[in-house]
Amino acid sequence: MTETLLDILSWGLLCLGGAFVLIGGIGALRLPGFYTRLHAASLTDTMATILIFTGMMLQAGFSLAALKLAAIMLFLLLTGPTASYALANAALQSGIEPDADRLGDDAGGGAR
Amino acid sequence: MYLAVSLAILVTMVLALVRALRGPTVYDRVLAVNMFGTKTALLLSVIAFLLGRPDFLDLALAYALINLVGILAVLEFFQNHTRGAQEPGHD
After folding, report:
1. What is the pTM (predicted TM-score) of this model?
2. Which residue from A45, A72, A87 is facing B61, i.e. has the nearest CB?
3. Which residue of B27, B46, B58 is in closest CB contact with A52?
4. Which of the ends of chain B has fewer CB neighbours closer than 10 A, N or C?
């Protein structure tokens, strides 16, 4: 019973993580402007990592593999937002402007 | 299910490579390469469970550490570069 529940839970987490990875990849390819692409890519860095690694840790149980998974997840969660922040900072200092007006108009047109 | 997740990660890696090749600015390329490195660690962990070989987790750990050092070094270079040059038209 508990096994089945854990299997279903980890299956759902893994599928959701895979969907997040795929959506973030498509967004990083297709969104307009650098900062929107950065947003899509950093989404996969944090949310998809948490979902996939939690799903695999549920499969691993209490073992050395779970500890290694936690270590990898910790490193990825430390590096992803740090790299995203440093990248956005470097891009802003080099003069790439966030094009808020045009994106706002586009988003409004899409919402209507 | 591991197969589906690893296929999704592989497709995303291909999309990141396309963005790295097409990226208009150098920051787009750095972003895509960073994403590629993160997805490498993720893919190695999933493959460890897909093949049932926990040894691959050590490889994923090594890739995560290398990615951390590499990306921070590249970004430090770019930040110093922009601060020193003070021109938007560099490279």
Report:
1. 0.81
2. A72
3. B46
4. C
